[in-house]
Amino acid sequence: MNIRKEIASRITTNCTLLLLGGILLTLPLGCKTAPAPDTGFLQQPERMAPETERFPFDRVWVKPGVEKDNYDYVVIAPVNTEYLMEKTGWKAANPGNIKLEESAVELAEYTEEKFREAFQKDERPGWKVANLTGPRTVVIELAIVELVPSKAAFGALRLAAPVFGPAGIAVGAGSAAAGGRPSVAIEGRLKDGVTGETLFMFADRQEAQMRIIDLSAVTWWGHAKDIIKYWAEECVELAKTPKDYQVKDRSFFTLKPW
Predict the structure, then answer these.
(1) Which domain holds residue 21?
(2) pLDDT digits 0-9 by tens, 93-110
(3) How many domains does the chain have?
(4) What is the CA 199 to chain-centroid distance, rounded?
(5) Handedness of CA 127, 131, 136, 141 (dihedral sign)
């Protein structure tokens, strides 16, 4: 009897692996969505351009001559979600929805926490987290500027889709948002801690990874957690690797069920 159970278990496992292999063969290893439109958070965003030899983001700009070795500390500023709520219409489409506004605050706090945590946990030489600006310090300013939740989130949270944004009008045809697929977009800049001069800018939009079982699809921004963590890790890697090192983008597929 035990032998039969073991044989049945192995057959089930093999079938599952074959099915999973078939799914993986039909999927791209990575999936970049169309860049998100500029929101106004970054000044002179037209200076940004794709730089795939080094950066995993849609567009970047680096101040000519800037050297990261001239800095020892990094301050993570509170994350901006004003552009997300106001510019993409979430607040207007859901007036009085306190839960949505609380979620926006939680999203900002989570993003700030993950960026700070990524720098703190990395033991390589380089920038260390500080709480105050000053000499040899850079400040990272971030804004979550677009969020397209899963269909499950719309139903579970009784959300109304904005007229602009997830409906696909303001965000551009052919994008993840236009297609209704869960995604999130960020804009960020690094500033000198003394002069306030902008040293680096980036913008990126990422589609949520495909999951076998999606247990995160019941919150407004749960699908964005992994993406935000990747962004934080990518920024740390950029800060602590040579200029000729290519920071790779994330995979489009994950086996994690949460």
Answers:
(1) 1-30
(2) 999 889 899 999 999 999
(3) 2
(4) 21
(5) positive
